Give the backbone structure.
Amino acid sequence: MTRIRFDHRPFSRATRALVAGLGLVLLSSCKLADVFSLSGNQSTMLTAGPVAKAQWDLFMVTVYVCTFIFIVVGAILAYAQIKFRARSESDEHAEPPPEAHGNPLVEIGLIAASVALLVIIAIPTLRDIWYTHDVPEDEKGNAMEVVATGNQWWFKFEYPSELVKLPNGGEAPLVTGNELVVPAGIPVRVQLRTIDVIHSFWIPKLAGKVDMMPNRANFLWFKADKPGYFYGQCAEFCGESHAIMRFRVIALSPRDYAQWLENQKAPARTVTPALLADAVDRSARVQFAAMKRNPGEALSASPAFDADPLNAWREMQHPDVGENAQLIATGRQLFAAKTCVSCHNIRGHEGVGISGPDLTRVGARSTIAAGVLENTHERMHAWIKNPNHFKPGNKMWFGGYNVKDGDNWKPNFTMNDQEIDALVAYLHSLK
Amino acid sequence: MAEVIAQSGFTGKQTAQRATTFALFPRPTAKTGLVSWLTTVDHKKIGMLYGGFAILFFLIGGIEALMIRTQLMVPNNRFISAQLYSELFTMHGTTMIFLAVMPLNAAFFNLLIPIQVGARDVAFPRLNSFSLWVWVVGAILLNVGWISHFVPSWNFGGAPDVGWFGYAPLTSKSFTPDLSTDFWVLGIQVLGISSIVASLNFIVTIINLRAPGLTMMRLPVFTWMALVTSFLLVLALPAIAIALVMVMFDRNFGTNFFEVSGGGQPILWQHLFWVFGHPEVYILILPPMGYVSEILPTFARKPLFGYPIVVFSGVAIGFIGFGVWSHHMFTTGLGTVATAAFALATMAIAVPTGVKVFNWIGTLWGGRIVTRVPMMFALGFIWMFMMGGLSGIMHSAAPADAQQQDSYFVIAHFHYVLIGGATFALLAAIHFWFPKFFGRMVPEFWGKLSFWIIFVGFNATFFPMHFLGLNGMPRRTWTYDSNMGWNEGNLFATYGAYLLGLGMFTYFAVLVWSYFKGEKCGNDPWDARTLEWSIPSPPPEHNFAAIPTVHARDAWWYEKTHKEEIAQEKAAHIKAEESHGGIHMPDQSWYPLFAAIGLLVGAYNLAQLHYPVTMFGQQVLASHLPLAITGLGLMVAACYLWALEGPGGYHLHIDAEGKVTESRDDHH
């Protein structure tokens, strides 16, 4: 019989020490607890509504069952590896064990045990498939409906039951972009639509994702238990800027929500010297607590914003202090002159376009460019100056700033810093 | 034995009588040098070519992964652009699946199946060479777009950037107007041709060329898994072939299969893709289960526990694998009943998979476990595959999957299955069979060192990704903001990826060193159990001096314990075969290569069909149609000449001292 050559343990003590040392360096350079943290803005563990909670609870059932299997099978495997390990050359070349080929009873027993464990997962799975699918019957009467439409690369939200007056006398559903504001404690049924490719609508703390499929009437539902500020993101690859197709969901108390709706339904705010003189009017429209805000490291929210995002968002609803009516008027003219109006709607002002996000209340949103940049003057300036830097391939850059000339793109218009400042002042006046 | 040969109709002389052949080129006969590799029909050389190309692409795919991890190392990073990132993750997935793991499996199919069934080659040697070169054509088509980054005038729009899954309608002309998607479509299509051709070849080889006594229930488990895999390929690939034709027609000829404005249904693509894509998962993992089922008994020094159950569970996985595709689509709005059905089917497939794990542990139980490098990778496989399998069970709970789908949790899951599972088993297999095909051992120290670096690096990379996914990080994202709680996990995963890269580099560098300097070894350095260990290392061209007769499941183990009986049998076989004209060997041929080149020219031009052909800035042709037709015509002509050329062949004669002489005078 051929003999396998026996090797002594190949690693010296020095090698092992070196490996352990490298491992320690690796570990200490990261905060290990943070590697395994589940406390982020899109945590699926920190649920804020019944759908996400059902999904997390079901996930934990699978975790318990799978951990149990892993521990039992792993313990047997580890025991076998240690117990039956050949420890010396003579051990390796001892008479091979008897040529056993299997044991039907053991096999059938293990198959039966596996099936039993899977049934533990299957029962709550089936229950939750139906529960998470649609608003439960007894809550249907109470539910509100919104339509979310995916675009490369932003989300449009429509409120079909909240009609607004159009300047031409007609009526249309209220439209917002990238920030979905809903009342807390009420089931929300979201119709999922897309205008181009497949997107997926995901608010981890409120509900798992459902895809926005072309030519399919998909929907999902969620309910926010309490008022809150939630992060969401497109979860299906949809092209170059998929990573930065983000949105927010803001759940408000019913009273705040009603107030928000009322403000949203009014035509765009027009800043005049007379308006600025009337300080009472400025604060009367929305009564939210004020908060200080600091620039932070993250592009989409400062640490102060993240510390209490809901209040920070409320602060955004106020008109800015120190508005300059002259500058805002210049910005409004530029918004038309630079052809922004052809893609963006500003209800009551010049904007009539529908292919870009509705900007009627853009100044009151906490982020711009689909949840990518915090909505500060500086960041809006940077965004308008070079949108392609923040969102590669976007249609404002390819189609607005630049137009197709044969196979190439050529600049359509340019803007200097003063012009951008005026535009920012105008857009930030739209509260 | 003489009767067996007579009944099989194999006399060697018949081939000589039937040949009326026509050859445009003299038939190549070189045994060494470039021509011998280009025209080879020897399954071992073809296997090595598959393996060499696959390892090359494995390293390229690895570099793509490291670039992805570098981009994600810190938030809001700008190391690479969003566009390049899309190309990198598309090509990382496509490369690892189609150009690394599948061809590595194909390499082992080629190297091992004929020997494990006791044959001298595959059933159709020239067709085998054709599969190889068609695969190379597919690999070129998929990667040709990279050239656009270096030579702007070759404007293919870069490498494919629609994801390896290519979801419609992102693949339509309106959203991806450049040529990269056309090359992706044709590249995958061509790879599919290669796989179907190869699979048919292996199915025929396994069923028809088994040595006397080798019943189906005596087949080595690896060969069994290869058989199941080949059937899966033959049945699954047509689905994607059809879907790819639909995309091609939508893009080039104005059809509306997936074109939303024309009433097309993008969901149709997903069903067709995953009807292929899910069996594909088992196509990737069943052969690795086969390697492990060979390696564990060898180093536990006892036969596989529950052989019939391991085989039947492999077949069961193959069957159920066709009924679970929609679990990739739980978030597409399937409706409650369909979701429930696919959730339960997915749980069901966990049972035969679990059965395999139980039987591997049963194999270790009571054995004498010899811890060599292949065994360490095989044991690592069981541990890592268990983790990947269990997180797979978690996905079967469809409502929970709504949170995990397209998140990093899924990335963690399938990398545990495909690296911890398939790749660990492949690394075990490479280390295990390297001595057989190169005649040299890989040093244990360096093998074990690379194992530990890979094991630690792999877990450091992918274990944190479970948590990133549960913390809401979606996959295929070029960047992320710094306030999401993903910074530390990503940094850690990137360190892990570098370590994994170092481990892989060590592993393959040691292989290269061993090829030149490794210690020489004999037939059977591991004291193994299957037929390939009964022949010299590296095996001679004809594999077996005498076709073996198989008396038991582990044929070589039986031979080792019944030496006298086998020696007599072999002497009789050699005599019988010599009396029929010696060992018949197939001739080399240029035509498989030429047919593949024709396909390359055809597909390369078909991809750019509607674009004018320019040379030195001048338009030469209005479209690529004439060139495409020329290429496909070349392929048809080569196939025709291939048929006219005839199988050819020559004879080997082995004298009493084992000296081999060649004779080819009886025909040509």
The longest strand of chain A covers residues 154-165. The radius of gyration of chain A is 29 Å. Chain A has 14 helices and 14 strands.
